[in-house]
Amino acid sequence: MQLLVAADCRVEVCTSPDVILSNEQIVSLIGHKCDGVLGQLTENWNHELFEALKQAGGKGMSNYAVGYNNVHVPSATERGIPVGNTPGVLTETTAELAAALTLAAARRVVEADVFMRAGKYEGWLPTLFVGHLLQRKTVGIVGAGRIGQAYAKMLVEGHKMDLVYYDPFPQPAFEKYLDGYGKFLESQGDEPIKWRRAESVEELLPQCDVVSLHCLLDDNTRHLMNEARLNMMKDTAVLVNAARGPVIDEVALVKHLKDNPTFMCGLDVFEDEPLMKPGLADCPNAVIVPHIASASLYTRGGMATLAAQNVAALVNGYPVWNKQDITPFLDMPIAEVPKAAPSIVNAKELGIE
Ligand SMILES: O=C(O)C(=O)CO
Fold it and tell me: For site-directed labelling of 330, which of 77, 191, 201, 297 has its Cα 20 to 30 A away?
């Protein structure tokens, strides 16, 4: 709010009690005059909304999110409207939640918590809530971007897990880091960790005790984890999704969880968010949380800053920042925030890089 006001914007805040706004509601909020919009990942930014924004004189829109699968970017580009997002501030926070889901699922933390609260604990038993040890097992990541790599490092360094990664593009800096960590372990008289890049998801799945999804949602990754691929995983594996719900065929997952009680999953996102597919909530082997992977104070504040600065810059005609490092925008006195839009996803298409 302060950034927008300092950039001479009159700010209208939506006060609707509805958590998810319909496009009709958003069109009416845009009204006849609106220079820019800061929107949320629950909104469907299609041609209808971009047309309404264009007609209202809109110069830009920013998603309050790093992911922008809810935005039909070509519709914005066609109308000359830049679209912002908020990269860089979610990495560690999201990776930590994926790691939390991994540990909670592997060690059955939620089932055990429910058991305690129900007053069922009668004393220690050798067989009570026995789960899976992660130390020195193998973790697989599908998608080795910033968040995938941060998550992998947490499990590799924290639990000395071997790593298999699948990403269409090799990640040399990440590989160098993994080699370096292996050498460090060796220098301590410890066994080095092993890592490899898999040629396909199919190659990765059967080798891993934990698989965490960190890919974008697009036509190639929708239902990536379908019945056939779930069946390729170990029946004691842990599957984690803090990416986007539709990457997993949730109906197939519910069936898989029911057929394989030792298979565990940790989900932050759901195919028909905010709904869950029937049966999922009844599976004790699923740990489920409501899309909170980016919910740390640091990250939500950073997302707000970046999204607001995207809008403030676009409505004032400032240039695009054009650098990966967005830290100059964070925790700065307002007067010192660079006069630029931190991250515009269609900058290249619009020729404003
Ligand atoms: O920024 C995103 O893409 C999110 O999913 C927020 O948690």
Answer: 77
